[in-house]
Design goal:
Blueprint (H helix, E strand, L loop, with lengths): L2 E4 L5 E6 L4 E5 L7 H12 L6 E3 L4 H6 L37 H13 L3 E6 L4 E5 L3 H11 L3 E2 L10 H8 L4 E5 L10 H14 L2
Parallel strand pairs: 3-4, 3-5, 5-8, 6-7
Antiparallel strand pairs: 1-2, 2-4, 6-8
């Protein structure tokens, strides 16, 4: 059962339900479009069976070509975590309150409804496999496929982050795959598709 919601600018955020236990999410940040491209290309030649996909969580940011959503909120600082805080209004602004944004609510509702057992989010540009919660083992397998190092910490504070919300507080293995933004996105197809296929097999 696919589900969707309409954003402030009238774009659609869609969950594609392949009856799987691994949720794969693209475009948390509108200036990191690689995830949507890779998910869309994957679904052109593979069915979604065995996986859950949100190809583009932040279509308004993608449309505007900026990190935040249409309200100027960094979705990866807007989750209702114990460490969420009201911050200054810059590109990392976490919203006026935790969980205030349509996009954030859609994702938290999806997790509550579909109960994924693993979550993979596609970001750029750091070329690392970052993880939160009990995800070290699967992160190492992903690292072997894409040849990026595994890093438990991204290296700077992220209050209200999705990794804290899903990985640390909900204890769902949560991987932030930071893709290379310099190389052509087509060069990421083979390793990223192999990661998707591994997660699909893992869920069977």
């Amino acid at each position: 059962m696919n589900k969707s919601v309409t954003t402030k600018l009238g774009n659609k955020i869609e969950l594609i339900d392949g009856k799987g236990k691994a949720l794969i999410i693209g475009v948390f940040h509108g200036d990191e479009p690689q995830g949507k491209y890779l998910i869309d290309e994957y679904l052109k030649i593979n069915n979604a069976e065995g996986l859950l996909f949100i190809p583009c969580l932040n279509p308004d940011g993608l449309q505007l070509g900026k990190r935040t959503n249409a309200n100027g909120v960094d979705l990866n600082r807007n989750f209702p975590t114990k460490n969420w805080e009201l911050t200054e209004k810059n590109e990392f602004f976490g919203g006026m309150s935790a969980g205030s944004e349509i996009e954030t609510q859609f994702l938290t509702d999806t997790i509550n409804e579909f109960k994924p057992e693993l979550i993979l989010t596609l970001h750029a540009p750091y070329k690392i496999v970052n993880y939160d919660g009990p995800a070290k083992e699967i992160s190492e397998k992903i690292s072997q496929i894409i040849n990026y190092p595994v890093e438990e910490s991204i290296g700077y504070p992220t209050p209200g982050s999705f990794g804290t919300y899903a990985g640390i507080e909900k204890q769902i293995p949560t991987i932030t795959l930071e893709l290379d933004e310099v190389c052509p996105v087509q060069d990421l197809v083979q390793p990223v598709f192999a990661i998707f296929d591994m997660l699909k097999k893992r869920g069977l």
